[in-house]
Amino acid sequence: MSQNHQEEEEVIEKLAGGEFEREPVPQSNLKSWKSFLGMYAGEHAAGTEFVIGPLFLTTGVSAFDLIIGLLLGNLMAVISWRFLTSEIAVKRRLTLYYQLEKICGKKLVVGYNLANGILFCFLAGAMITVSATAVGIPFDMEMPKLTDTMPNGATWVIIVIGIGAIISLIASKGYDTVSKAANWMSPVIVLAFVACGVIALQQLGVGSFKDFWNIWGEGGEPFPGQIKYTFWHVFFWSWFANAAMHIGMSDLSVFRFAKKASSGWTTAAGMYVGHYMAWIAAALLYAVYVQSPEAQALLAQGQAPNVAPGPLAYNAIGVFGIIAVVLAGWTTANPTIYRAGLAFQAIMPKASTFWVTILAGSIATIAGLFPAFAMKLLDFVALYGFILAPVGAVIVFEHFFHKQAGIAQNYAELANMKFNKSVLLAWGISFGLFYFISVQFDVFLSFVTLPAWLLCGVLFLILSKYSQKKMA
User: Fold this and answer.
1) Can you tell me where the transmembrane regions are (predicted)?
2) Which stretches of 270-376 are DSSP H helices?
């Protein structure tokens, strides 16, 4: 590295606020597994759960398909984090964006970072929507319907903007603040989910495991506008709900701070407290509401009953439910906006962490004004994982198979290449082929995420070997 380049990197790092966006995290800044435990428990026992749990109920899923499908699908997600994401993160200690820059070249990675950051902002926006449904209760705010796409009034707009501003400021303080906020809030949220589940079971008259099982039973017809879920829908959807973060390697940016790769096991706290217990607890809340006269009247009219987390939690545990939903939205939106900020910073490396995170928070707040991102969360999460996950295969296959394939690591950096065509072709072919299959043959998108990921990785190795040999 030349002296001038080194000085430039140091200036960028200073402007970035000490988050090590463009250099490996030093040993002195590494964190124990406890830091990740709180963050993952908080992030995944969070706002999305209040929406996803009820949405599962709208798909007419059976008890076996839901309970066992979630059990195994979440296990696969934890394994993906542990043996792929955290394994690579502790060896490289770089953000996803800087690592991709070394492989893809600066020009190509700009497009990816932009797409990644915007998609993260949309997800964070959905969580701002979730929190707003709780804050709006004391103001007698009209709640968004399952079919709503646009803001439904001035009160909604004011509340969303207020929540978005607070969340953005917390995220802009950096990883330490995001992690501490998660540690403070996650026990309260987990307690709220447990309380909601227990109260809902009482309201449903559940006195035995058989009664609990019969809430879903053999399943039924999906609600209007929803598709029927089977075991495989639940299994693959729950595995790839966070595909962008594990097999898509986004959480390299998080686990680069880990002392050991075994910190990847802490994601189990998020999967089994959040994506298992919390999803089921939230589904129970919705099961109570579905039995109400209001919900039955909507079903009789061919409409799906509202999925508004705030009122569902409030009806079960009162004011504590409002607080829990607000905090749940925050603990998902905070790290998501932080990740989006890192994506934008990779495009504008001389901008400070504070201002790029504020930019990300502003986009997320605008997205939060539109309820469609939350109300169509199952579809959106599947799409966002499918788009971003194959790019992670480039990092994974290069890391584990570069010697067998006979290719150089970080080739764009070595060859001073601004645009690595092998990466673009690998992603474009795999994405285009399997998205076409999904649309043309009406295949559930989560079913083709893994084939697209594998094809992208294999194509990258083949194309890289050819292009590197040709250039040599």
Assistant:
1) 63-84, 109-134, 154-172, 184-209, 229-248, 269-292, 312-333, 354-374, 380-401, 422-438, 444-463
2) 279-290, 293-300, 309-317, 319-347, 353-368, 372-375
